[in-house]
Design goal:
This protein is about 35% helix and about 30% strand. By secondary structure, the chain is an alpha+beta fold. Strands 1, 2, 3, 4, 5 and 6 form a 6-stranded antiparallel β-sheet that branches.
Length: about 120
């Protein structure tokens, strides 16, 4: 029963924990989960960029609205919080390796971004 209590606390923590990373400040983007119907057509799970600061780290690297982020530093990114959690461990001025889909060409590729 001791194990049961620990597991329960772990789940509660996981659910309520929201990293205090601001994606607009650090990457210059806002993201939202891919809609279910788009998942079918892409055959991928990720987050879609819904706002880009042209002068932010992602904007300067050529990211645009509707581009899709699949991974950051090898971690699958399914929600905004997944992305925030990954960024939380990275110091400003350091690099993050993104796996992303270009919405124009539908090409998937890795892009390294220096974050703020």
């Amino acid at each position: 029963s001791k194990k049961e209590v620990l597991a329960k606390i772990g789940l509660e923590y996981e659910k309520e924990y929201t990293p205090s990373v601001n994606l607009k400040d650090r990457l210059g983007i806002s993201v939202m989960p891919l809609k279910a119907n788009r998942n079918a057509s892409w055959g991928k799970k990720g987050v879609v960029i819904c706002w880009v600061d042209p002068n932010g780290p992602m904007g300067k690297a050529g990211f645009e609205i509707n581009d899709i982020i699949l991974e950051a530093n090898g971690h699958p990114i399914l929600t905004q919080n997944d992305l925030k959690r990954t960024l939380e461990t990275i110091k400003p001025g350091h690099y993050v390796m993104f796996l992303a889909i270009d919405h124009r060409t539908h090409r998937t590729g890795y892009v390294q971004i220096r974050i703020r």
